[in-house]
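Researcher: Go.
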Amino acid sequence: MRVLIWFDMEGVSGISDPRMCDFRSPLLPEGRKLSTADVNAVIRGLRRGGATEISVFDGHDFGGNLIAKDLDPSADYLAGGWEDTLEELINTRALAEYDAVVLVGHHSQSGTVNGFYSHTVNPDVALRLNGQPVGEIELAAWLAGHFGVRTIMVSSDEAGVNEAKLLLPGIETVVVKRKTDSGVECFPLEKVHAELEETAFNALRKAEEHEPHVFPGPITVDILFKLSKLAENMALFPGYEKKDERTVTYEAEDYMEAFRAFIAFQAILPEFVASFFRQILRRVKQTVDVDLKGIHREVTRKIESEFIPFPPINLSSQVPSR
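Model: Structure:
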């Protein structure tokens, strides 16, 4: 049985600071070490469960987050991120060649109450499909389902697991940590790794009992932006219409078109970044004694003051009991 592990980083056990997921941060090495350990635990379980071939897709940022030399050598490491490896899996239909997908280290969607580093691809956007708030966990599972592949397991923080249970009925889950009022409670690594291994083993042994998770068309895609200017820019693209101050909408015939319609928001981000630095340059030109850090903070505060907060989402009360 061929299995694809779809790895993300924010939902890894032991990661308690977003900087541990940031390629610019000195805390990244510890995050990479913890991530590799979680993935290796899942690989062990899948091997015990009968997996004949395992691939690990590194879906965090641009990929390359796992420590390749420490990764279980029985697995094939696909390191290229969404814009490289995922595109290849989709365009070549290689995703359809797997028998099962396992989501490791994933996180809850934008606006989630008590979610650790909750976002949906980018912190400045949120997503609704046919009015339902959804995040990356479901996007991945429904993408696999579009190709006829079942998603059998997800590991995440408590909020991410609640989301998965609600929107992906029957999926096996592992909670590795939970966000609290005072910070993040990370569960003991040895215990979590044992649970990851055992859940992966059991999920694969019962894989035939699972049907692929499918989101049928037609689908109304609503993309919510924190900044109204981004919504205005997105509405300039063919097929998109401005729905309200911060939302654009797109009508898709099937899930693949809906997925593409959402991911296309990334096309407007370079202009947003360029605008940010143009504002900094304008301030520099107006200032005799240049304080770049101070100007950066000033421009950042100005932009953040224009943010429209996402509606809060609390799925814990809706999760069915097991």
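Model: The radius of gyration is 20 Å.
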